[in-house]
Amino acid sequence: MSAYPEVVAKIASDYLERVKSQLRLVPAHEQVEFLREIESHLYESYQQMPGEDDVARILAVLRKFGEPAEVVSDRLPGAMVRSGTRRNLPLYVVGGILIALFGLPLGSAGVGVLVGLLAALAGILVAYYAVAGSFLLVGAVTMLLGLIRIILPQLFDRLVALGYIQLGGPVGEFLDHFSPGYQGILIILFASLFAGAGWGMLWVGKYMLRGLRFLFSLTFDWMRRFAQGARRKLRRGNREAPQLGKASFVKQ
Amino acid sequence: MEYSDEGRDRRITQLRKGILELAVMGVLYDERHYGYSLVRVLSESGSISLKEGTIYPILARLDRDGLVRSEWVESDQGPPRKYYALTSSGRQLFDALSQELDVLVSLVQQKWKAPEQSARAGKKLVVRKG
Questions:
Q1: A153 and A46 in one domain?
Q2: How far is A68 from A75, CA to CA, in rounded Å?
Q3: Where in chain B are the domains?
Q4: Among residues A112, A127, A99, which one has the least CA distance to residue A208?
Q5: Residue A33 and residue B76: Cβ atoms within 8 Å?
Q6: Most confident of A200-209, B67-76, B103-112
Q7: In A34-130, where do the E strands start and end?
Q8: Measured between beta carbons, which residues in chain A are less than 8 angstroms from residue B60?
Q9: In B, which residues are within 8 Å of A234 by CB distance?
Q10: Taken in order A195, A199, A204, A209, is the CA torsion positive or negative?
Q11: Cα A245 vs. chain centroid, distance in angstroms?
Q12: Which CATH topology does B1-86 take?
């Protein structure tokens, strides 16, 4: 059997390490198999590569093979690749709830707990958006009241008299120091604070949503891979694979 | 204004990548191959120049979708090789995809012919899709 010179083995090992470092999220047994396959390819490609200079040959092989990121792109969980794209979150939420409900009875306690956590996170997100929506609604309604106070002060007084608007206590006393027009402006300014807070929460929530979507994708991707692995094992049985040797082809 | 060489190259690469999966299935249709031999066949049989490592994500995807089966085989020339062969569902899919490709290719080629012929080709595609 032909063999790698030591320096070539070192370069190949470094390359495989770079590939491996990009496969952190891939199950260990898949990593080993994938790296073995690449190692086999590099070895054969090196043997076929013409030239006298060993280093130049292996570098040419690696150049032809491509960057590790390109090679592992499809081995990463889909979530890593798709995190920038829009996903159908409601379906994930429904899927999460279903698995949370049925995961435990099926014995998949870990999955149930994991999905339960994600469901809790989703619940927090829903509550967050509800608060943001409330702020916006309060801001809009209060702004409308401020406009009414400026444009139709009589209508405002009537609404107060009827009890639809309650401005008692220190707030009412404070506003009484101003004319209806100024009162309207103060009410609008106050409303703007609420509307601004609601708007800000929506803006921040966009990033929270993106993060949660990423978490969901990652989890479901992991579950899908786990299920596929289990199916494969059932179908083919365990295949024994020797561990990847860093310099398994070093010339003796 | 002429389209940039860079843009053209990028589109050519996209086109090749799109077709590569089908080409891989075609090579594995009747004969099993391991990654390196597959790359050799692909690069010898046509102008698909590719980074060799890109074949593995494709094989992984096909494997994951049950379109190929794989097995490790010891080699007397070096480390063991992982051989791939198309499964029956892979063959069925390849047949369907290559028929679809024929339609698309004929549609593209119709571009240089008379307008009424192009329209016919377009209709044919729609009917097949529908």
A1: no
A2: 11
A3: 1-86, 88-130
A4: A127
A5: no
A6: B67-76
A7: none
A8: 34, 74-75
A9: none
A10: positive
A11: 34
A12: Arc Repressor Mutant, subunit A (1.10.10)
